[in-house]
Amino acid sequence: xxxxxxxxxxxxxxxxxxxxxxxxxxxxxxxxxxxxxxxxxxxxxxxxxxxxxxxxxxxxxxxxxxx
Length: 67
Prior knowledge:
Blueprint: E1 8-9, E2 21-23, E3 33-38, E4 47-50, H1 51-66
Antiparallel strand pairs: 1-2, 2-3, 3-4
InterPro entries: DUF397 (IPR007278)
Domain DUF397: 6-62
Organism: Streptomyces reniochalinae
């Protein structure tokens, strides 16, 4: 059994090794904190954002991609 969290890379991440953001939905805690990390530096502790801040960020990225 693998107890390691599953990190999901953003579909908007640059395939050339830059701008790589990942989040781990299985690590979202009861307080609604969302863990986010730089996929190029996975040894560093993830940042933690409120679910509202994360939703605003994702919505902004989607909106800019649609423009």
